[in-house]
Amino acid sequence: MASESHHKENLHNLQLEDEGQHRNPSEVKMSQIVVPCHANHCGELSIGQLLKWMDCTACLSAERHAGCPCVTASLDDIYFEHTIGVGQVVNIKAKVNRAFNSSMEVGIEVSCEDLYSGRHWRVCQAFATFVAKRTDANKVQLKQVVPCTHQEQVEHSLAAERRRMRLIHHNIMQDLLNNKTLQRSISEESHDEDEALSTERTRVESVELVLPPHANHQVNTFGGQIMAWMENVATIAASRLCNAHPTLRAIDMFHFRGPSQVGDRLVLKAIVNNTFKNSMEVGVCAEAYHGDEPLRHINSAFMTFEVLDEKGRPRPLPPIKPEPQEGQRRYQEALARKKIRLDRKYIISCKQTEVPLSVPWDTSNQVYLSYNNVSALKMLAAKNNWDLSSKKNKVSLYTVEESQSLCFRVEFEMEIPAQRAFILLSDLSRRHEWDQHYTLCKLLLRVDEDDFIYQVVTPSVSKGGKYQDFILLASRRPPCDSGDPYVIALRSVALPSHPPTEEFHRGEVVCAGFTIYEVSKSVSKICYYNQTSPEVLPYISTDIAGLSSSFYSIFCACRQYLLDNIISTSAFTPSVL
């Protein structure tokens, strides 16, 4: 009886815990204890096995949301922070962040647990894209994800921006390879021919027959299995270069270009593309054929390996000598991908407070700076601890203080279509018409149709002081779905063509911008955000302290500016002055 009473008490505690804790309907968890058959000869979990578990968990999450079979379309870049040993437990959690028409983004978190010490630590995070495949002829239209928690709202919002990055991933690489500065730096690189190793010694080719155990419930080759086979041949190629056991540190995006079925022969090829002091890039591809048919390209990926010494420090690697033509092409592309990886890690992987404000802008990192710009504003807007500081005639000023950061939000509603307000507020060259702090705003560079770089000049707060100037990246985004806001994000960047001058004191903006919600067809809710920097704080400190309401007069001027231009139908097409 005592045992039964104790069991009922535990069940009651679990029910109370579940009631107080939200569980995403699409969330799926998997826990696996690592046994020797999962590990390599160093007693560490094979990354190929981990990829299989990650893909399986993510697929189950996608199918739970879609209510129909789903296939892996891509897996974003992964950085492995730690290895996992035999006897430790791998905990994987996957949930759908956002659904689009027939595809959805699934977020995957992997952590490790030591059963003896009770310690937990993060191993990696990844984002996978899955596509719903109905068995009937009806067109797939996925239901929308409804975020409930603060974190879910952030991920739901950022998923649209990550999707945008995936769609232009190929263009980034091509633009970088066409960059003359990069081509010059590649041609200037030289290695001692006596020390350089031929890449031909690292070439690996292996064939696998796809059997029923390798297939999913749709009789297609399981995406995780293909990734595991690719990791296997890539590891062999890396081992041939260094004559040691390499450690996989990162994988560039897996992108599935076509399906494979039971009975296919899968041809896996790998070769070292380049070495960089302490790391090497291995290119790997998977192709399939059945019978006499020609090879079909299934997947490609690029994996970064390190070789660690006895103290766990990366060992230096020998330079390689690429083969003519194809080998030289792979060599150059590896250099370009390395630059992209460094830019991405530098800009995106760090916390906002750890990223230097004015990151140098160039064509290789423009998409990641843009992503960081928009995501920072969305995360600022998603904060749930805003305090109302003052309110005057329906114009509200909110603040939030966190450690050494002070953020503010100005919010008001007015009768103007949201799209029209978005067009007018996107054009920073007209901001001086309503904002007294903008003396001049000159368009320096049109990056693309949604991103622009401006020079902004503002008067000095102190009498007789220097004017300030800012080099700002403005990124504008229309809604991805109904209910999403229009977004105009601003952050400082460094533009080599416009260095600081003696004429102005160069200021910096951490994060600022607008979100514009459609309340109705004719009414919009407009919110302005700013994460203050030392250069911005003097302009609004009296408002925050409640000693002034200048913010009210500025946003009254903004409202009047919008009303005065509400009937214009001209589109926002700025030109460089």
From TrEMBL:
Its main location: cytoplasm. SUPFAM superfamilies: Bet v1-like (SSF55961), Thioesterase/thiol ester dehydrase-isomerase (SSF54637). It holds the Pfam family START. It comes from the Eukaryota. Residues 1-23 are annotated as: Disordered. It is found in: Cytoplasm; Mitochondrion matrix. Residues 386-545 form the START domain. PROSITE patterns: HOTDOG_ACOT (PS51770), START (PS50848). Its EC number is 3.1.2.2. It is an enzyme of class 3 (hydrolase). Residues 1-11 have a biased composition (Basic and acidic residues). Keywords: Cytoplasm, Fatty acid metabolism, Hydrolase, Lipid metabolism, Mitochondrion, Phosphoprotein, Repeat, Serine esterase, Transit peptide. GO terms for biological process: acyl-CoA metabolic process; fatty acid metabolic process. Pathway: Lipid metabolism; fatty acid metabolism. Residues 24-136, 200-311 form the HotDog ACOT-type domain. It catalyses: dodecanoyl-CoA + H2O = dodecanoate + CoA + H(+); butanoyl-CoA + H2O = butanoate + CoA + H(+); tetradecanoyl-CoA + H2O = tetradecanoate + CoA + H(+); hexadecanoyl-CoA + H2O = hexadecanoate + CoA + H(+). GO terms for cellular component: cytosol; mitochondrial matrix. The keyword Transit peptide applies. One of its GO terms (molecular function) is lipid binding. Has an acyl-CoA thioesterase activity with a preference for the long chain fatty acyl-CoA thioesters hexadecanoyl-CoA/palmitoyl-CoA and tetradecanoyl-CoA/myristoyl-CoA which are the main substrates in the mitochondrial beta-oxidation pathway. This is Acyl-coenzyme A thioesterase 11. It comes from Cyprinus carpio carpio. The lineage of its organism: Eukaryota, Metazoa, Chordata, Craniata, Vertebrata.
